[in-house]
Amino acid sequence: MRLRVIAAAIGATLVAFSGSAAAQIKIGMLLSTTGPAAALGVPERNTVALMPKKIGGMDIEYIVLDDGTDTTNARRNAEKFVGEHKVDAIIGASTTPNTMAISEFVAKSQTPTIALGGSLVITRPMNEVRKWIFATPYNDEIVMGAGAKHMAATGVKTAAVIAFADALGESNTKEFIKAAEERKIKVVASEKYNPTDTSVTAQILKIVAAKPDAVMIIASGTPAALPHHALVERNYRGKRYTGHGVVTNDFIRVGGKNVEGILVPAGPAIVAEDLPDNHPAKKVAVDYKTRYEAMYGKGTFAAFGANAWDASLVLQDALPRAIATKAKPGTTEFRVALRDAIEATKNLAATHGIVNMGPNDHNGFSADSAVVLTIDKGRWTVAK
Whole-prediction pTM value? Predict the structure, then answer.
């Protein structure tokens, strides 16, 4: 593998991974490798080195740009990918806000994009913009539905929410309230905070005063640990849930004993070895995790890298169909063919389950794909 590092504009770092000096197909990797979402972007960037350098007889070049978890940088990097690098597709952005910041541009430039943010607003409702955007993480309808289902099954009657004050938080809060109400769970409080906040005391005081049976924390990366610390400090004894944007060992490190026993509806990749042998994700997830930890060390695996790997699997499945159209990479015709090929993805085994895309479903996972995880003695495991 050839690796070259080039200084890019706006303080970002560009890294190109290729199998030859003249790659025929270019994939832009728009990731948050620094800033509040670095816990997502770093394993996604690390996964690029594992991606195939040749697909369908053509060389593949992956060009990585860091957006610093900043929406303005994300938009500029997307423009750089299309204007300077003439990419055929984009994988990213790492977060929902950054994905929303580039959505109109990638649609206008007709660049198929596989997002790594998990909010439902990325792919629904379908329109001329979302026609060009797909996503590999579970959407919030799946995750919040699984969380509310688990609450109802364990006797929860009232719940509260504290969420990021952004597109991720807004969309997930809406889906959680909907799923909770469907299961006769009353939402008694709803609060917000910013990923850069250093305290959520005021919000947690309001939540504790409402005396909910459970709290759903909707956040991603290590900043999601902050409400857990505050709830423990206030002696909250109810169940604590968190969205799937926390499934990393970094989150466990930052959360420490205060995140032991929390409940997280999420993809099964991080607990791949614990899955039954007939689980559709087990073989793919174990293979990816083995490759990742062979390169980066035992215990380095993170579910966000699995999202990037699933995006690569989607491209590996779709690119041969696009190539078969005889359209030339680097052209609008090829990008259109690739978009159509991604939308035609069927029965593709990925690290989080089986993917079936369609004109009105650019996520492709079924509603029952998620599992509920917990942290037991500093290790992710399936909740009992």
Answer: 0.84
